[in-house]
TrEMBL record:
Species annotation: Hymenobacter jejuensis
Function: One of several proteins that assist in the late maturation steps of the functional core of the 30S ribosomal subunit. Associates with free 30S ribosomal subunits (but not with 30S subunits that are part of 70S ribosomes or polysomes). Required for efficient processing of 16S rRNA. May interact with the 5'-terminal helix region of 16S rRNA.
Endpoints of the signal sequence: none
Name of the protein: Ribosome-binding factor A
Subunit composition and interactions: Monomer. Binds 30S ribosomal subunits, but not 50S ribosomal subunits or 70S ribosomes.
Subcellular location: Cytoplasm
GO biological process, one term: maturation of SSU-rRNA
GO molecular function, one term: ribosomal small subunit binding
Entry-linked SUPFAM superfamilies: Ribosome-binding factor A, RbfA
Keywords (A to Z) from UniProt: Cytoplasm, Ribosome biogenesis
Length: 142
């Protein structure tokens, strides 16, 4: 479970990394604006795991390798943006977030299932008993 400080730093890093990719370093990744789905920060705030959503890119692994190659440049641009809020900028570790692809795959699997309609039950079973249930052992039958 993350502490409040970890959550605040992760939220700040997520916002600022999105700005770095879109405004500061668009020339490094032409035609690609990687979405930052999640940022997880270690308890000592020294390492940030950044999960990128690269759905638009055809070759997600290749784009992830390119992002990892430019990690130092990205960290430097991030440091310029958060220098007033953080004393130490965490090391960035980039990972591919495949949760959207997984959800799409599960949708495909569920839509391919052939589920037969349920059989109607005996209509007599749905009728409640006209007798009142006995609540106590000493109740008289009416």
């Amino acid at each position: 479970m993350e502490s409040k400080r970890q959550q605040k730093v992760a939220s700040l890093l997520q916002q600022e990394l999105a700005a770095v990719f879109q405004r500061d370093l668009p020339h490094l990744f032409p035609g690609l604006a990687p979405g930052i789905s999640t940022v997880r920060v270690s308890p000592d705030l020294g390492v940030a795991r950044v999960y990128l959503s690269l759905l638009i890119a055809g070759n997600a692994e290749g784009m992830l390798a390119e992002v990892r190659d430019n990690a130092k440049t990205i960290r430097l641009a991030l440091a310029k943006r958060v220098r007033q809020q953080l004393r130490i900028v965490p090391d960035l570790a980039f990972y591919l977030d495949d949760s959207a692809a997984y959800a799409a795959r599960m949708d495909q699997v569920f839509s391919g299932l052939n589920i037969p309609p349920s059989q109607p039950e005996d209509p007599d079973k749905d009728q409640p008993d006209s007798k009142r249930p006995k609540l106590f052992a000493d109740e008289d039958e009416e």
